[in-house]
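User: Show me a protein chain along with its predicted structure.
Assistant: Here is one chain, sequence first, then structure tokens.
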Amino acid sequence: MFLLFSLKRLILKEQFKVYLAFITIAAILNLVLNYNFIKIFGIVGAAAASVFSIFFASLLSYIVNKKSKQLSY
């Protein structure tokens, strides 16, 4: 849920390249983790890989949003 709001803020601030980078990094991380975790843990590994990749993208988004200026309404 956090990822939804923080990435929307990047879109509103017209930082589309940053938004695209976060989504791309999360997707690649998810693929790598899925490949490794499914071998070991099965379907639970797939779920864990998704959680980790979403958490990582949320963390990156949080850090960038904290460093950027506030939106003017």
